[in-house]
Design brief:
CATH architecture of the largest domain: Beta Barrel
Bound molecules: ligand LLP
CATH class of the largest domain: Mainly Beta
Helix content: 25-40%
EC number: 4.1.1.20
Subunit structure: Homodimer.
Oligomer: single chain
Pathway: Amino-acid biosynthesis; L-lysine biosynthesis via DAP pathway; L-lysine from DL-2,6-diaminopimelate: step 1/1
Family: Belongs to the Orn/Lys/Arg decarboxylase class-II family. LysA subfamily.
Distance between the termini: 53 Å
Radius of gyration: 24 Å
Cofactor: pyridoxal 5'-phosphate
Number of helices: 12
CATH topology of the largest domain: Lyase, Ornithine Decarboxylase, Chain A, domain 1
CATH superfamily of the largest domain: Lyase, Ornithine Decarboxylase, Chain A, domain 1
Number of strands: 21
Length: 462
Amino acid sequence: MSAHASPGSFTGTSPVWLKTPEDVNALVPALWSATAEKDANGVLTVGGVAVPDLVANINTPAYVLDEADFRERARAFRDAFTGYDVYYAGKAFLCTEVARWVAQEGLCLDVCSNGELSVALRAEVDPAKIGYHGNNKTPMELRRAIVAGVGRIIVDSFAEVERVAAIAAETGITASVMVRVTAGVEAHTHEYIATAHEDQKFGFSISSGDAFEAVRRLLDAPNVELRGLHSHIGSQIFDSSGFEVAARRVLALQARIRDELGTELPEMDLGGGFGIAYTTQDDPSTPKALAEELTAIVEHECRGFGLAVPHLSIEPGRAIVGPSMCTVYTVGTVKEVALDGGVTRTYVSVDGGMSDNIRTALYDADYSATLAGRASSAGPVLGRVVGKHCEAGDIVVKHEFLPADIAPGDLIAVPGTGAYGRSMASNYNHALRPPVVAVRDGESRVIVRRETEDDLFATDMG
Ligand code: LLP
């Protein structure tokens, strides 16, 4: 028996959330960018560009970025979070052109490394609208940020308190800072992307008193303007209870600062981490619902402590760029592998893998996939999309129903790869990192080109 299935009947080794599709060609709209659709021939188009035509020119694998969708998600956050500053978290995906879109849509930009800061400055993002994170910023990096006029440096350690104070004193430039605090919250997400529990590297613990002490020292430092407290609890979070607990603890600290140091810090950042739908098991909130929920939480807690509501900001990365991009691959081999119980799994090998999407291997992430170049009349089989790297864990999509006639040469597309796909891509096995092609209104534009062998050899001294 093979793992062929008719709708609703499949009982093989697929996870419970994966339902046998009525039509294996159909897109699940919630997983795709707004302009993605399939025509009657099963051809996937994004931004009015037919994916087979696009890759005929630029080859596969390729990341396809739906510009209108990206801009729309950025605007949705900006408009829903009225009165807030919205910082797009560039670590999710950043290149010069995308930094420009972020600025054009009226968002600020969160960078967390010297390299990301370089991209932001190259794109001529107003430095005052840049926030700079990182748990190990060097004195040189801090000096560069302060001299460039970066709007807020999020201070993460006592060493950094001293470094910032020294640079501000020496240059005479006022350094504008926030204090990254850890609220002791166990966010319900993968261990590697939770950031507010106590036993990890980021920020100052509230419960140990370190966060208070950092605030005290920064308030005492000449030429340092302390704007507020910053709390980011983790990533790919769906449940607002973590934000609620964090807000209560951060505002308790704000109250202690008022009571003991005589000042209410004017700002507060709630971080990013809003989840997106990778598969049908995910049900994310809208920016509007998130804004209402978070604002209500902060207002409630402020009332409880008798505090004024500070000027708020958030830092969404994934929720803006994640759904805006898909990755297009070409199928190279198809292999039926026998599983226990007499069923088979169809292993579909594509021309990329863990070098362009490490999230499946690193976080056990789920994705979905669809045939992108034609319609199939074959029934669905339980498939697994794997890469071409030398590792058994080189999996792109762990579980997906694919048409039984999937074959070498077929194009498949994986949605939701915009966040932490290209930005965490590597040259593993000397893979050449794929391009990012922006599509909009029937036009396509390469905004990050494909790497070449020359790029590989540029650093290999021979
Ligand atoms: N702000 C801070 C301080 C952060 O550390 C992060 C993410 C964000 C904002 C944006 O979080 P987002 O809205 O994108 O969830 N590579 C992992 C995610 C690591 C997130 C690191 N920090 C992944 O692929 O799931």
